Amino acid sequence: MIMSASWNQLFFQTTLLLVSCRHISTKTPGPTPAPLLPIGPLTNLVKTVEVRANESHTVELLERASVELVCKWAGNENKPQNVTGYWTKDGSEIKNSSVTVQLEKEQYVLKQMFTVLNETDLGNYSCVFGNEAKAEFILAVPQIGEKRDKPIIGYANDFMVIQCKIDDTKPVPTSWKWARMNGTEKEPIVAAAESRRYKIEIEERKTKLFFHKMTKADAGLYSCGAVYAIGTAYSQVELKIITFWEPLKLFIGILVEVIILVAAILIYERSQSGKQCTKENGPNPDQRNSMTQEENNDEEGGSAVRQRKV
Amino acid sequence: MPPSAAADSACSPPDGGWGWAVVFGAFISIGFSYAFPKSLTIYFKEIQEYFCISYSDIAWLSSVMLASMYAGGPVSSVFVNRYGSRPVVMAGGLMVSVAMVMASFGTTIMHLYLCVGVLGGLGLAFNLQPSLTIIGSYFHARRPLANGLAMTGSPVVLFTLAPLNQFLFDSLGWRGSFLVLGAIVLNCCVAGALMRPVGQILQPRAAPQSLSGGELSGGVPTDGGGKSQSCLRRFVDVSLFRHRGFLIYLIGNVIMFFGFFAPVVFLAPYAKQQGIDEYSAAFLLSIFALVDMFVRPATGLVGNARRVRPRIQYLFSFSVAYNGACHLLCPLASGYAGLALYAVFFGLAFGMLSALLFEVLMDLVGAPRFSTAVGLVTVIECGPVLLGPPLSGALVDIFGEYKYMYYACGVFMLVPGIFFFVMHYYNYKKLDEERRQSAAVVMRTSEEAA
């Protein structure tokens, strides 16, 4: 639920009180009917950002929270006394969020408290100063860092493992879920039902999807989701299935090339007369060998005769 | 009957002609041996998720592959001594291919360990040793250049495999990619086909092939149906352990390898810790690889220069010490520009060292015994190579900072560098003395005969 600025102070104090008392059971006051608040305290997060034209900051949220977003702007050359500021969510202006901001200590400060209760409350929030400057806050669940842009290649009748992992620096998700993308629709994969085809293994930060025996029908986009209290982070991976014929073609091609080359070299050699042992020394006979060359010449004559007899 | 590698080098090396085709074959072969394990790391994340295992489990795959590759060294040497380079490289290529194809149908991680790790690693070992050996039989005067060019295969193939692997992974997943990689690795068989044996005449040889180390006992016997004595000697050439040059090389290398690979592994994480973003940190590695790529053939050229060649051990010692100095100064580098400069200098140092690494061994023990020598060296180096990065990682974990690791790596490379300088000065003196002595003996016997 989004609170208007006029209720801001009141709610802030109420929240603090409630947090310190460790139970929340009141409804949130506001212009629109409020949903039932869940049991459990809301974590308080204050994120301050200084605006410098199109800056964007990501705020990671795991569970329901109350977030205060603060925008500071140094102003332009004119520096009027008042500036109108408002907030937008995902591009469209939030109703009743427009306020007049006073110039304090050479800057304009725009604050707003937002409660994030479910996945729809996440998104891109922007503060706008009178159509001149704005900053963006991306409220989202922790993203899965490892992006796989290249498809995974699997072979028909082979087994395969697809893995999704969340960084060690990010918090552990409550659970994982897998789905198969059919166009834009997600078809969830339930391992228990089709246990002959799939198996899902879940460790805290990792999840693996096993395919026991793949067929061409298994090719496509798969998405793994890290489930947090507030929402799910997705990562997609493409699986391509090929048969062994593809690499085999290349293998046979290269094999043929090798056979041709080897045959050519051996035939060329046979067509030339057998290489005789050259008796002349090279242009620079090394001193080390000069002695042995002489001895060799003596030996060669004798052994050659012996050889011919054999 | 296929001639053995030892017999090949009894013929005078052509130093050109078909040798350059062999260098190209070695380039491919060596490139795959070094770059293949590194490039597989792209698939680790997906395989880890697929089999539901931890990161250290999948990292074991790299270690098993590397261990298998290094431990397979002596086995590879035995086969090369017996059958020559060509069949071994082709067999190696086939082994890795079969390993990858089998792995693409794998159902457990153990399956992958055995196929890619053990079999794949062994196959790569069968690629590495013979490639190095055959260069020694084709080149003598231009050998440093040939070695430098062949070793350039490692950064070039890595540069090509990395984006290729990414592309395969995006279009085919890890299974399909392993299958296609199995085919790509078959190109090692093409490289093997290029490794035509030099000379077709088998010949036994009693005289030593090199005077290094003053070891005047016989070299590796080469007739096919040898006695049991020669059979044993073929497996383990223990006489190498009495070879002065070989010992110097071995001791220095074992210490050096503790600090060799760790700085490469930790360059990107160090950069990220300094606050540099992931892409710029990866770009540092690209700078390093690019510099490495050009420095290797350049070092080969330098090593071939008339003044440098007779004293090439000093160049190697310098490159080892230079690596050490680079790492010791690394913590002084600040900001991205400093690290980029470090990457350039490190690339220079790493490339120089890699280009000369096997050339100096060939120079010390001579081409015929090189195969056995390199097998022994790789199996002994297995330890430091595998322990180096985890130990450095432990240093980083204990101190929480990378600079102590760099200091340690710097020391581990500077000390062997100085050791090499000193020992080779002494070794060269001894060799000159021995050569003078045996020249005097020959003169005397020829005078007596006349």
TrEMBL record, chain A:
Residues 274-310 are annotated as: Disordered. It is a single-pass type I membrane protein. It is found in: Membrane. GO terms for molecular function: cell adhesion molecule binding. The keyword Disulfide bond applies. SUPFAM superfamilies: Immunoglobulin. Residues 41-138, 142-240 form the Ig-like domain. Gene3D superfamilies: Immunoglobulins (2.60.40.10). Residues 1-26 form the signal peptide. Keywords: Disulfide bond, Glycoprotein, Immunoglobulin domain, Membrane, Signal, Transmembrane, Transmembrane helix. Its main location: membrane. It comes from the Eukaryota. One of its GO terms (cellular component) is plasma membrane. The chain crosses the membrane at residues 250-268. Residues 274-294 have a biased composition (Polar residues). This is Embigin. It comes from Betta splendens (Siamese fighting fish). The gene is emb.
From TrEMBL, chain B:
Its main location: membrane. Keywords: Cell membrane, Membrane, Symport, Transmembrane, Transmembrane helix, Transport. PANTHER family: MAJOR FACILITATOR SUPERFAMILY (MFS) PROFILE DOMAIN-CONTAINING PROTEIN, MONOCARBOXYLATE TRANSPORTER. Residues 19-428 form the Major facilitator superfamily (MFS) profile domain. This is Monocarboxylate transporter 2-like isoform X1. The keyword Nucleotide-binding does not apply. InterPro entries: MCT, MFS, MFS_dom, MFS_trans_sf, Proton-linked_MCT. PROSITE patterns: MFS (PS50850). The chain crosses the membrane at residues 18-37, 58-80, 100-124, 145-164, 176-195, 246-268, 280-302, 314-334, 340-361, 373-392, 404-426. GO terms for molecular function: monocarboxylic acid transmembrane transporter activity; symporter activity. It is found in: Basolateral cell membrane. Belongs to the major facilitator superfamily. Monocarboxylate porter (TC 2.A.1.13) family. The keyword Metal-binding does not apply. It is a multi-pass membrane protein. One of its GO terms (cellular component) is basolateral plasma membrane. It catalyses: 4-methyl-2-oxopentanoate(out) + H(+)(out) = 4-methyl-2-oxopentanoate(in) + H(+)(in); 3-methyl-2-oxobutanoate(out) + H(+)(out) = 3-methyl-2-oxobutanoate(in) + H(+)(in).
